[in-house]
Amino acid sequence: MSNTHLEGEFMKTDAQLQQEVMAELKWEPLLRAAEIGVSAKNGVITLTGTVDTYTKKSEAEDAVKRVAGVNAVVE
């Protein structure tokens, strides 16, 4: 099944993506979800906030990429 076909079956709303990304961030042991703001627009996730290491930044971005329906991550 192609990605296009999957997207045609069910496209998540920005609000759904935002909620799923926030839930995924909570599972990351290095991160405190309260440190990271999440917004979504047309499948593009924007992360805001400050973390104290590059590892945490990378963990946050990786968590976002695991959420189905995310097209891109920006900071």
Notable characteristics:
75 residues; alpha+beta; Histidine-containing Protein, Chain: A; 3-stranded mixed β-sheet; globular; disordered N terminus
Description:
The protein has 75 residues and is of the alpha+beta class. The protein has a single domain (3-74), classed as Histidine-containing Protein, Chain: A (2-Layer Sandwich). It is built from three helices and three strands. The chain has helices at 3-9, 14-26, 54-65, and strands spanning 36-41, 44-49, 72-74. The protein has a three-stranded mixed beta sheet with strand order 1-2-3. Strand 2, helix 3 and strand 3 form a beta-alpha-beta unit. The longest helix is centred in the first third of the chain and has 13 residues, at 14-26.
In short:
This protein has 75 residues and is of the alpha+beta class.
